[in-house]
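Response to reviewer comment R2.3. The reviewers asked that we include at least one raw input/output pair. We reproduce the pair for Orotidine 5'-phosphate decarboxylase here without editing.
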Amino acid sequence: MPHHKSSYTARAASFKNPTASRLLKLMDEKQTNLSIAADVTTKAELLKLADVLGPYICVFKTHIDIVTDFDQDLIKQLEALAQKHNFLIFEDRKFADIGNTVKHQYSQGVYHIASWSDITNAHPLPGEGIIKGLKEVGLPLSRGLLLLAEMSSAGSLAKGAYSEEAVRMARRNRDFVIGFIGQRRLSVPLDAGQEQEDDFLYLTPGVSMAQPGDSLGQQYRSPEQVILESECDVIIVGRGIYGAADPVAKATEYREAGWAAYQKRLGV
Ligand code: 5FU
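Raw output as returned:
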């Protein structure tokens, strides 16, 4: 059976990486494939979103460097909320440098991302050294990495052969690379000696049920287009939820739409 026709739970066993298996299982347990892009700029707003939306999401996605009053207590409280509501934390750091540099950016600096973020991501642009560097830090902590195979923004250069090469890099590093940021499940010719396609997670930003895009190149698609037509696994929604008058009501709508599309995909 093709991977996308299997349930999240059934797919969990084929991942060696414990973060990938945990995510797949908790999605079925909580019946949600919704991730919130919590792009707010204060500690109080970020923690409030994590607490009120926690029950409805599988992944809480952060841009920690936009929080003006960041401190270690924010991390402590965010980790407690992740426990309370059973969601994973994904720092959308988009690393893009040589292996030796990203190793330090991931483990040190102000944010110590590796110490609290279950998942982070990297551009494949610099070549495989970026994965090797991040892996030295992240694998002993059982973290997972997503490669940016595609982006949602207009005119993105991440397409075609670039995206296909991202898949090949991921195949060679399946212990640490758990999937992709992308717009569709990528079908890439098998490598010599490879009998079947490896399963990967596809987390997809650029999701809105109300807008076609923004004034800065963002392009939106619906949960149904992402989960059913493009066979991705997680919808990532930012302004469509936290920008609404009632974020909990909106999160409920997105969660239901994402889940209905998943069930349709499974043929349930
Ligand atoms: F890799 C990507 C991408 O291709 N598009 C994105 O929009 C990441 N993003 C992130 O998803 C972006 O940095 C925001 O954090 C979020 C989308 O937010 P929106 O408010 O739903 O447009």
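Residues 202 and 232 are 5 Å apart (CA to CA). The chain has ten helices and eight strands. Further pairs are available on request from the corresponding author.
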